[in-house]
């Protein structure tokens, strides 16, 4: 890490006045004590010059060990860098061993990447050293170092041209390794204007190099130039096609990428077919070449080819459909008229002898292989990929087939049977990909009865993810006939009887089936409800999951076809009222008795107007402390209720509620800092304030920079109050709170410097100014400096309304308190383990927070166990549109174990985020399960 150089306060005050200057809190102060103690314990030196001076009068092995030590400890004073670089260069020039010279060059790259050293000086020194170097190994390392140094900062055009010129000179080296790294350097740094003129052609010549690594690097560098904006000309296409048959896998891989890139960039370019005068589009020919690569001997090449096919969506329909047929289409061969065949026969000078019947019949003198517009390997390419022995190739083929089908509805219908066949694959991941692919293209297809039988046979799969995926797919697809829908309903209900834990997934499936097939549902309503036209049927149990599934499907169909309501018996209407109250997310509102109007709160109107009124009332009462605190307490309850009523506005309401709660705690603690007594214990208030600050920092996303500044200022106030109250209490060390305050202040200062348009409040400005003026930030001195600021701090500014805020929260689906109630106790022998299935859904969990997810188990004796779930147990929720961006599902097993209990007691299980050591933020209310460890039964 780059360490900031100490600057005196006089230097800061002498800077030119460019507006509001944010005092800078040097970050190295936080770690000064830790580094000093570490240096004392292991006896290492902290000066780079001390290391470099040890290189004098040493052997090559000793010098190598010293250079390794410099690499291991990268925290140095930047003022010593110029002298250290000069001495390292001098040692490089007199060092006879090439390995040591390589290590010196590698050290230059490490210094450029991890410290604030001048990169331009390093470039000059490295190029100067390499100009007189003879060892190919050292020159190769030097080219790598130049690339790393150039990436560590933004060099000027002059230095870029200097590196490019040096790389072009080294292209003529006899060493293949030097050539490869020179080409790499050209691809990364050559200017776009120069590349289009001459550098691209220069690099292209090395695709014919005798060394495979140089050939592969030439293609890779050209692709890098294309990513940087260089126009890759179609003239590179024949060269790339020739390299597709190279003996080395690395060359074929890069050539395949080049063929794909040229096909996508120039789809309408016309090129001639080999050994023919016929012309085809470049994208079509490239598609055929990529299809041929699926028959490659290397699994990696076959996987890459299968992946690339999905990106070539502009290919012609005849080429696209050919990938699903292993027989070459007749119209893919060149055909000549009778006149052309006769003219060719006349030109050959051959005449019939009359000895053989029909020997003068016109014949095609061109073989089929030579005139085919598509290579034979392209025929049935996707089928070949689906039948490959490696799951990577099969998975990539399924994904590409899905991408191509999304762009072509006719191809989607053709590929349906092949995707359905993949439901029987032996690998679960392949089956899942086929299911999700079929779900994605469901809008283009209608399922037949023979296809449904294959799909529904997979519903009894042992994997819960496969079953849920099939539920999602069945809900997304449409069926053709009444018999098909009856088959689906019957099979889904049979599987539900076998796997009752799939209840919620089945409910969602039947809900979507009813919404997509209202007419067919109406035709089978009497059959499903077992309603006789003349006799009254017995009332069915509304708690029966199978009956509930049927009702959910019919009610959702009746929403789109109100005429169905006349077919419902009276008992079904009563059951509708019950189900509408118990599961409103599955049962829609229907025009059945009573008022059918529904109150809808929209975040942009009603909820926003309510929040604006609430904030304006608090703002008007800001000058009266008692009235403000009373309004803040009442506002918390109102905001919590608003978050429950309006889900679209819940993130904003929860953020504002937590912010107001932290403000109330802070005002109470501010009274304690001035010497007044408060009702609640100070330690308890501090813990609650820290928890709310952590919630503001970690549970909310989509914050604006103004919101982020408010959160940072709130945390700065909380850390200052924490230090003041701990020093006043004198019962614990204040070193940790002091370092925490300095860290938060440094972070706030950096944030304000990055966002110069933001203005900090008076408290933050005063705290940062005081901390910047403290030379040796010991807890006592920091306390004396900030105490008057903390005691006289003004109230916190009220946050602005931001409707985009999302809150991370969870919902535990299994276990439920009813499933493990007092009548259904988990019994296990004391000391052994009981595995409880655990399923939960998480919303708005950030990708960076996945590793912080924890399961918290609290036993009745107040013992708390924190469990880290496996990464593979947390996956994104699949929807009809693909993977959800913000929803995750955690499916795992919670292991419970304890000593002997006299009777069953409740164990609390919840999900939390571990944001700091011993600080977990709960994402939902804990679920309670009854657990009873029994004593070991002794034998007679």
TrEMBL record:
Pfam families: INTS4_8HBD, INTS4_C. One of its GO terms (cellular component) is integrator complex. Signal peptide: none annotated. Keywords: Nucleus. It comes from the Eukaryota. Residues 812-936 form the Integrator complex subunit 4/Protein SIEL C-terminal Ig-like domain. Residues 608-802 form the INTS4 8 helical bundle domain. InterPro entries: ARM-like, ARM-type_fold, INTS4_8HBD, INTS4_C. GO terms for biological process: snRNA processing. The keyword Transferase does not apply. It is found in: Nucleus. The keyword Nucleus applies. This is Integrator complex subunit 4. It comes from Anopheles dirus.
């Amino acid at each position: 890490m780059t360490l900031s150089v100490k600057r005196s306060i006089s230097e800061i005050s002498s800077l030119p006045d460019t507006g509001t200057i944010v005092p800078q809190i040097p970050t190295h102060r936080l770690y000064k004590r830790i580094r000093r103690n570490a240096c004392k314990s292991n006896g290492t030196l902290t000066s780079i010059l001390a290391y470099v001076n040890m290189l004098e009068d040493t052997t090559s092995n000793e010098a190598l060990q010293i250079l390794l030590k410099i690499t291991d400890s990268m925290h140095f004073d930047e003022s010593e860098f110029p002298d250290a670089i000069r001495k390292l260069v001098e040692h490089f020039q007199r060092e006879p061993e090439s390995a040591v010279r390589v290590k010196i060059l590698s050290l230059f790259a490490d210094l450029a990447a991890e410290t604030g050293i001048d990169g331009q000086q390093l470039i000059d020194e490295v190029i100067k050293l390499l100009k007189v170097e003879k060892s190919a190994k050292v020159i190769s390392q030097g080219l790598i170092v130049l690339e790393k140094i150039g990436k560590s900062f933004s060099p000027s055009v002059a230095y870029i041209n200097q590196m490019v010129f040096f790389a072009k000179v080294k292209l003529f080296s006899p060493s293949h390794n030097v050539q490869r790294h020179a080409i790499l350097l050209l691809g990364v740094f050559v200017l776009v204007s120069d590349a289009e003129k001459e550098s691209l052609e220069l690099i292209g010549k090395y695709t014919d190099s005798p060394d495979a690594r140089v050939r592969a690097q030439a293609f890779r560098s050209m692709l890098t130039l294309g990513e940087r904006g260089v126009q890759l000309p179609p003239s590179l296409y024949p060269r790339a096609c020739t390299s597709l048959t190279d003996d080395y896998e690395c060359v074929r891989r890069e050539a395949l990428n080049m063929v794909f890139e040229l096909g996508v960039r120039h789809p309408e370019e016309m090129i001639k077919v080999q050994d023919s005068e016929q012309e085809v589009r470049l994208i079509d020919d490239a598609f055929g070449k990529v299809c041929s690569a699926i028959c490659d001997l290397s699994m990696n090449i076959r996987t890459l080819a299968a992946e690339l096919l999905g990106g070539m969506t502009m290919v012609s329909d005849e080429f696209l459909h050919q990938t699903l047929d292993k027989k070459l289409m007749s119209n893919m061969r060149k055909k000549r008229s009778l006149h052309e065949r006769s003219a060719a026969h006349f030109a050959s000078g051959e005449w019939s002898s009359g000895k053989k019947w029909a020997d003068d019949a016109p014949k095609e003198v061109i073989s089929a292989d030579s005139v085919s517009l598509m290579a034979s390997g392209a025929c049935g390419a996707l089928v070949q990929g689906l039948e490959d022995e490696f799951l990577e190739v099969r998975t990539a083929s399924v994904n590409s087939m899905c991408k191509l089908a999304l762009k072509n509805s006719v191809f989607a219908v053709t590929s349906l049977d092949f995707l359905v066949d993949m439901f029987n694959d032996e690998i679960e991941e392949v089956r899942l990909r086929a299911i999700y692919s079929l779900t994605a293209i469901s809008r283009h297809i209608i399922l037949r009865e023979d296809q449904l039988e294959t799909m529904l046979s997979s519903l009894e799969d042992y994997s819960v993810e496969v079953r849920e995926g099939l539920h999602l797919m069945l809900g997304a697809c449409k069926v053709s006939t009444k018999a098909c829908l009856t088959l689906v309903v019957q099979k889904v209900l049979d599987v539900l009887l076998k796997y009752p834990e799939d209840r919620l997934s089945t409910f969602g499936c039947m809900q979507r089936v009813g919404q997509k097939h209202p007419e067919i549902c109406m035709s089978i309503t009497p059959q499903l409800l077992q309603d006789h036209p003349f006799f009254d049927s017995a009332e069915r149990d509304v708690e029966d999951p199978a009956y509930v599934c049927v009702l959910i499907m019919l009610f959702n169909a009746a929403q789109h076809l109100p005429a169905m309501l006349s077919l419902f018996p009276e008992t079904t209407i009563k059951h509708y009222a019950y189900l509408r109250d118990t599961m409103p997310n599955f049962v829609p509102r229907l025009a059945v008795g009573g008022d059918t109007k529904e109150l809808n709160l929209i975040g942009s109107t009603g909820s926003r107007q309510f929040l604006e009124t609430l904030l304006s009332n608090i703002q008007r009462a800001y000058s009266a402390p008692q009235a403000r605190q009373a309004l803040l307490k009442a506002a918390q309850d109102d905001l919590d209720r608003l978050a429950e009523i309006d889900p679209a506005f819940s993130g904003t309401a929860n953020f504002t509620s937590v912010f107001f709660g932290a403000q109330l705690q802070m005002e109470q603690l501010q009274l304690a800092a001035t010497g007044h007594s408060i009702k609640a214990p100070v330690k308890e208030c501090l813990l609650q304030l820290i928890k709310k600050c952590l919630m503001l920092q970690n549970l909310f996303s989509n914050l604006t920079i103004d919101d982020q500044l408010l959160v940072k200022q709130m945390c700065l106030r909380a850390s200052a109050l924490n230090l003041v109250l701990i020093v006043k209490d004198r019962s614990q060390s204040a070193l940790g709170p002091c370092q925490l305050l300095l860290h938060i202040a440094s972070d706030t200062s950096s944030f304000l410097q990055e966002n110069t348009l933001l203005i900090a409040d008076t408290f933050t400005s005063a705290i940062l100014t005081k901390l910047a003026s403290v030379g040796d930030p010991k807890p006592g001195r920091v306390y004396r400096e900030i105490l008057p600021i903390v005691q006289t701090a003004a109230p916190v500014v009220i946050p602005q309304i931001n409707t985009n805020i999302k809150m991370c929260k969870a919902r535990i689906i299994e276990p439920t308190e009813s499933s493990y109630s007092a009548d259904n106790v988990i019994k296990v022998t004391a000391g052994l383990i009981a595995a409880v299935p655990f399923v939960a859904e998480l919303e708005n969990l950030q990708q960076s927070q996945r590793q912080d997810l924890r399961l918290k188990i609290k036993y009745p004796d107040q013992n708390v166990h924190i469990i880290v779930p496996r990464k593979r147990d947390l996956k994104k929720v699949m929807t009809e549109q693909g993977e959800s961006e913000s929803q995750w599902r955690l499916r795992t097993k919670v292991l419970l174990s304890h000593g002997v209990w006299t009777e069953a007691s409740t164990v609390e299980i919840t999900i939390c985020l571990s944001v700091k050591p011993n600080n977990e933020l709960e994402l939902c209310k804990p679920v309670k399960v009854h657990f009873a460890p029994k004593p070991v039964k002794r034998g007679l």
